[in-house]
Every structure is written in C-alpha cells, then in structure tokens.
Amino acid sequence: MKIKALKGFKDIVPGEVELWQYLERVAREVFDRFHFREIRLPILEETELFARSIGEATDIVEKEMYTFVDKKITMRPEATASLLRAYIEHGLYVQKPVQRLFTIGPMFRHERPQRGRLRQFHQMDIEVLGTDNPLADTELMAMAAMLFEELDINVSLELNSLGCPECRPGYRARLLAYIAERHDALCGDCKRRSTTNPLRVLDCKVPSCREQILDAPSLLDHLCGPCKDHFEQVQAGLRQLGVSYRLNKFMVRGLDYYCRTTFEFITSDLGAQAAVAAGGRYDGLIETLGGPKNSPGIGFAMGMERLVLLLQQQAKSPVEEEKIDLFVAGIGAQAARAGFGLVHEMRARKFSVAMDYEGRSLKSQMKQADKAGARFVLIVGDDELALGKGILRNMMNKEEQQDIALSASAIAECLLKK
Ligand code: ATP
Ligand code: MG
C-alpha cells in the first residue's frame, strides 16, 4: 500500500520550490532594509500559551489547534504568541527598547483544506515590540505594501481600529443590543458567538448574517480620544507615504489580542481565500503573557501559500530556469572516472557542475546537459583522455567548441572568459 502525505499537508517539490525561495529572498531583503532581525522559534509550545494569547473563544483555539492532549502541548497555529514568549523569556526588551523581529516557518491549523488553505501552511511574521507610536503601525503597512509591489502582486489594504479596553466595552454593549434584536436571523455559529465574542459576528462570511449586520454600529464611531487620535495619525502617515487603503468597519480579526489598528491585505485573485496578510496592534498582550508592564506591540503575518499562488499566476515567472555552469560527459569507463575527479575540482572552484555516472551514450548525456541548462559541456572520451585533452562545447552558442587540457585550472579559465 502506498503511503501518501496527510490531507492538508503538502510537499513543495523542485520546480515549485524556486518560487518559494524567490519569495523568501525578496522578503528578507525588504525586511533587512527596514532593519528587522530574524528570530527562529520552536514549533511546539505549551497549549496554555495559545489559549491565553489568541483567546479561548476564537476559531483557532476552539477548533483548529493540533494539540497533544496528554502532554498539554500544541503545534503553533500562528507565530506571534511564540515570538512574544521568546521575547519575554530572553529579556529582549532589556537589550533594546524597541525590538524589530521577523520569523518564517510552518504553522498548523486543523481546517478544511482548499486552494490557499492548508493544515500545515507557512507564514512570514513581522513584529515591532516596545512602541505604541502610530508611525510603527504606518511603517509596517508601508513595508508590506512595498514588498507586494516589488513582487508585482496586486492587493488592497483594509484598515480598522478595534479601540482599547477603555472604549471597546461600551461599544460591545451597543453591538450586543443590536445583535440581540436580530438573534433569530443569525447562523448557528453567530448565535453562539453573540454572547461569547460578539465582535466576531461582524466578520461572519454567511450571506444572511452579512445582511443582518449591514447597519451595525461601528467601533470607529465609538473610539475614545486617545484611540481616535492614534488612528488618525496612522492614516495621516499612510497618506504621507502614499499607501492607499480603505476603511473596513467589519474587519475584526479572529484573534482576541488585537486592539487599535488592525489591517488586512486582500486580493480578488484567489477566490474565497482573499487575505494574503493580516495583523494588528496588541498593546496588552506582552503583559498578559508575563512580560513587562506597558509594553505595546504590533505585527502581521503573510500567508506564503497564497503569495506563491499569486506569483504562479503571473504572466512571466520571476524565477529563472534551472542553470549550471558545466556538464561533464564522460564516454567510456576510464574517461568517466577522470571526469568524476574534474567535476569535484570544478565544484571546489565554485562552479556548479553535473555529470551522469551511468555510462549513457553521448547523445543521452547531451540531452541531460540541455535539460540542466548547462552553459558548457566538457566531453571526454577514452581516446582524448590518453592525450590529456577534452572537448569543451559552448552550449549558449552551439557551434563553438575547442580542445582543452583536462585540468581544472584550464577549464575554469575558459569558463570565466566566456
Ligand atoms: P482566513 O480568514 O483566511 O482564515 P485568518 O484570519 O485565519 O485567515 P491569520 O491568522 O490572520 O489568518 O493569518 C495570517 C495569514 O496567514 C492569512 O491572511 C493567510 O494569508 C494565511 N493563512 C491563515 N490560515 C491559513 C491556512 N490554513 N492556509 C494557508 N494560509 C493561511
Ligand atoms: Mg482562519
């Protein structure tokens, strides 16, 4: 019986992996420009970490986590909680008042697999810790926008503010009253949410619920003075940097820890899986997790599967075809053996080199060289070997070939000249 990968878990095979590498390369380069440093985190954490940060009454904690019940540990469903755990554990706030960190890796959520939605998926997660300055919010969104532009990916930014513990309770009460009047018309999930987490009713995807909440009160009309001021400054910053956005009063995000600024970058090119990046501010979370008091933070995560799908849809692939510097074709046992040594020497000289060691025909080896995108082929036969010579063929200009001494230094010199 053949064993297959689990449902919702995917291999990223050669031919596909190049786009992932490209995405990561461009992103790392942008993160570097914005002075973010990498942190690498474990995949398993105590279940309590996610329950406490993401919130008990969220989809993730209620039904999406992979938990080893007997050990009370969970495969991380997102990166922020782990990153903050590490930030606190290593006292990173002592080293620098503001820490700018990113991490890249797999996350795990037990949801129904679809295009752009997997059970093991990958995120690039970026966080600015230790400041509640609205410029940090603006800068993060501007960085994401810059990255998407450099990737040639078309997305739009949606923005909201979720207020703070000062202003949200008052709003929550108004929303509860509004929902209570429409309770019977809501879906089962929303009926349940309306008491545990009423804000979540606002972003329910069920059409009949969406209809019901069209005229729901907006948090943006009920922000307290400081939240209002903060939100205005964030928007002024976006306008200053020329980052376009749209206010979306229904965007509440699925995690409990958010306050003030929340945002999503969405695309219309991936069907139902519209969000490619999402995040927001979480000013009370570090303290909740046992960190220092008054340590604000903001961050967002990008879904790499969705970004790769968007890159795949581009007319011209941003990734170059496979290429190597040299293919060594040995014809005959002796020649192949000598070629094997030369290949190793050339690799030590930093050339990318391939050979076939199955003793195939010259024709078949030339085909392989072509497939590998070799710039040059070195042909060595037993007769040439006796004379200490080989034939170097320039594959970029197939007419051109020359005799060459079978020494790595002679071959290297020739390759560098062309
Ligand atoms: P969605 O509404 O699509 O379920 P989410 O709000 O649960 O997204 P976040 O927790 O904010 O997502 O994660 C940030 C990003 O990670 C999302 O915008 C998306 O691009 C990506 N993402 C989330 N869940 C998955 C998944 N199961 N498979 C692939 N990508 C995902
Ligand atoms: Mg989700």
- Major β-sheet profile: 8 strands, mixed
CATH secondary-structure class of the largest domain: Alpha Beta
Spatially, the strands of the biggest sheet line up as 1-5-6-11-10-9-7-8
Strand content bin: 15-25%
Q: Report how far the terminal alpha carbons are from each other.
A: 52 Å
In CATH, the architecture of the largest domain is: 2-Layer Sandwich
- What hetero molecules are bound to the protein chains? adenosine-5'-triphosphate, magnesium ion
Number of helices: 16
| Record field, number of beta strands | 16
Percent of residues in helices comes to 25-40%
Multimerization state: single chain
| Overall mean pLDDT | 94
CATH superfamily of the largest domain: Bira Bifunctional Protein, Domain 2
> And the CATH topology of the largest domain?
BirA Bifunctional Protein, domain 2
How many structural domains are formed by the residues?
2
- Broad structural category: alpha+beta
Radius of gyration: 28 Å
Q: Which outline best applies?
A: elongated
Residue windows where pLDDT falls under 50 for at least 5 positions: none
Describe the structure.
The chain is α+β, with helices and mostly antiparallel strands and 418 residues long. The chain folds into two domains: 17-167 and 223-313, BirA Bifunctional Protein, domain 2, CATH 3.30.930; 324-412, 3-Layer(aba) Sandwich (Rossmann fold), CATH 3.40.50. It is built from 16 helices and 16 strands. The protein has helices at 17-33, 47-54, 59-64, 80-89, 92-95, 134-150, 168-182, 188-196, 207-213, 225-240, 285-288, 304-312, 333-348, 362-371, 382-386, 408-417, and strands at residues 37-38, 44-46, 66-68, 73-75, 99-108, 120-129, 156-161, 246-247, 259-266, 275-281, 297-303, 324-331, 353-355, 374-381, 389-394, 401-405. The strands form three sheets. It has an eight-stranded mixed sheet. Strands 13-12-14-15-16 form a five-stranded mixed sheet, with helices on both faces. 37% of the residues are buried. The site of adenosine-5'-triphosphate has 18 residues, from strand 6, strand 10, strand 11 and helix 12.
